[in-house]
């Protein structure tokens, strides 16, 4: 299969059993794993880091709003933390905005992009941008306005996020494919295939 296949998981919330279900149900081996926050405990972060190493699949990750310093330390020590960073992984340029402090993380990412001269192919965040796959059970659009402005400016090919458990889905707006896979603690995940300018995403439940 040509191009890149990204396994996108979010909102594990310490559910190692469900993470194992997802891994065992994968229809294809991904070329990259993207984890978009709310591991909620160190053991969940360790589990996905160790699996990616065993399989030889690169991992990129951002923190979520419910993560803490221990989770961030695990991800940073593994060299996979993307909060406020940009990096080329598996032929694609990933940029990350962490969920622990999104505003500072966005500022750091913009500085990283300016100094590196890179253009983001895939944006990883925990929170959704305002107005996209961000509707809560109460009917409130809970995405971040600043993040929507960032996406409009960067124009990535794909924007992968989570946080709003009740709004899984895929939307294509202005040349960007937005993906909220739903929470991994319910066995939900997405596979995102990128070949040239073509981005296709599918949602799965293990």
From TrEMBL:
Residue ranges annotated for the Calcineurin-like phosphoesterase domain, each copy included: 6-186
Gene3D superfamilies from the UniProt entry: 3.60.21.10
List the Pfam families.
Metallophos_2
Q: Which SUPFAM superfamilies match?
A: Metallo-dependent phosphatases
- Superkingdom of this protein's organism: Archaea
Q: Which residues form the signal peptide?
A: none
Q: Tell me the PANTHER family matching this sequence.
A: CALCINEURIN-LIKE PHOSPHOESTERASE DOMAIN-CONTAINING PROTEIN, METALLOPHOSPHOESTERASE
Task: Spell out the protein name for this chain.
Answer: Calcineurin-like phosphoesterase domain-containing protein
Q: Which organism is it from?
A: Aeropyrum pernix (strain ATCC 700893 / DSM 11879 / JCM 9820 / NBRC 100138 / K1)
